[in-house]
Fold this protein.
Amino acid sequence: MNRITIYFLLLVGFSFTSCIPTKDLIYLQNKDDSTGDQSINQVMSKPYRMQTNDIIIITINATDPKLVAMFNTGANGQTESGAYFEGYSVDDHGNIRLPVLGELNVLGFTADEIRTKVEALLLSDYFNKEANIFVNVKLAGFRYTINGEVSSPGSKILYRDKVNIMEAIANSGDIAITGNRKEIVIIRQFPQGTEMHTIDLTDVNVMKSPYYNLQPNDFIYIKPLKQKTWGTGTTGIQSFTTIVSGLTLIISTYLVFKSL
């Protein structure tokens, strides 16, 4: 067997390892032995707790809107794009400044807990139960950051209360063919620190993970596949082109040296 044949076989073998298998590109596969439809019970995610730099929208309503107008200065009539300027920003000490009520510490509290605190302040100092005070508390958009092998990396805002990892990726233009769907890294911020976790989006059981449903301020990183580093092509056609180019180079070099 001459050298050219050996080199050719080596290149062909390498090309088979360099192509990205279809099973590495398909989301939510049933990897168990069971067949047919599969029921997945999602894990209930914990309520989000406020962090510094969050922006909160608080609206106060009553049977007579005039009674609560002074408490809603700068907080009513927000549009989605204007929420950043009209909401209440959590400062470095975990406080927000509300009209009339003053500073309120919200660091580590859920939206429901903040609502309860505001309602208690209003009823104890300003109103009686007959005023029918109704307080609504929510974040000014669901914020997350995604980076790595996606079509549109960067910081994103979705104006929804809940977002899962599949929706976040779809909103970012999907994972590139060179992205590793089996090792999606999620970095999650908590008032007490940071946690990092890896999930496999090719496995349908990922929906049972507490990290499948995102929390505001999550950071998502999509790792590249090793095929991208090799630069041999991610599809059969690309790998074939690489083989032909490599083989042409080998033959040309061989002929040059043979003629010397």
Summary: The chain is about 30% helix and 25% strand. The chain has a mean pLDDT of 81. The CA atoms of residues 63 and 76 lie 16 Å apart. The two ends are 22 Å apart (CA to CA).
